[in-house]
């Protein structure tokens, strides 16, 4: 063998990769969304399964994420525009443990009133197959995945509002 060090490195990489789990297939429209549990900012626990029964938009974000911070005011406007029709926006922050006060301060500064939860373990990001933030998921009243936006997006864009109207109408 001409390069024994390269062969050894290749063997090491192959053995490490063989031990890694291959992520499940990404959510497809119509798939049931994964169940999740997150913390309330006041210390309790929230079961994401309780969201089923009404359509919602799930936004996974963090206070240190610039695109997350940028889209938060528009997520609030989207929530305000459609909450009277049984729709809500729900956020789950993946900030570190002990960041509840930082999260609360940011939400107060922006004026966010829709429900926000906290998952410092990033379990929700893993379950939803995120490789970056933010990640936003439109979910119908039966808990089925409808659409995903990865990275920053404009929540009040006409096509987003139309998707929300459609998911609301489908639940009527």
Please describe what this structure looks like.
This protein has a seven-stranded mixed sheet with strand order 2-1-5-4-3-6-7, covered by helices on one side. It has helices at residues 4-19, 66-82, 100-110, 123-127, 158-171, and strands at 37-40, 45-47, 56-61, 88-93, 116-118, 135-139, 145-150. α2 links the parallel β3 (56-61) and β4 (88-93). It contains five helices and seven strands; from the N terminus they run αβββαβαβαββα.
Give keywords.
single chain, alpha/beta, 7-stranded mixed sheet, 5 helices, 19% strand
The biggest beta sheet is recorded as: 7 strands, mixed
**How much of the residues is beta strand, in percent?**
15-25%
Q: In one word, what is the shape?
A: globular
Count of DSSP-assigned helices: 5
Low-confidence stretches: 4-23
Helix and strand pattern: HEEEHEHEHEEH
Number of strands: 7
Briefly note the structural class of the backbone.
alpha/beta
Give the helix proportion (percent range): 25-40%
Strand order of the largest sheet: 2-1-5-4-3-6-7
Amino-to-carboxy terminus distance:
68 Å
The value of Rg in angstroms is 19 Å
Mean pLDDT: 88
């Amino acid at each position: 063998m001409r390069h024994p060090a390269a062969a050894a490195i290749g063997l090491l990489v192959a053995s490490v990769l063989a031990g890694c789990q291959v992520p499940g297939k990404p959510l497809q429209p119509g798939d049931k969304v994964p169940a999740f549990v997150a913390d309330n900012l006041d210390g309790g626990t929230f079961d994401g399964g309780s969201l089923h029964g009404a359509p919602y938009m799930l936004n996974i974000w963090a206070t240190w994420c610039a695109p997350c911070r940028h889209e938060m005011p528009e997520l609030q406007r989207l929530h305000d525009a459609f909450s009277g029709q049984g729709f809500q926006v729900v956020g789950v922050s993946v900030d570190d443990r002990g960041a509840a006060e930082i999260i609360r301060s940011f939400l107060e500064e922006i004026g966010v009133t829709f429900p926000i939860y906290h998952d410092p373990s990033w379990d929700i990001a893993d379950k939803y197959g995120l490789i970056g933030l933010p990640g936003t998921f439109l979910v119908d009243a039966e808990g089925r995945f409808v659409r995903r936006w990865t990275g920053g997006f404009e929540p009040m864009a006409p096509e987003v509002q139309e998707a929300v109207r459609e998911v609301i109408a489908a639940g009527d």
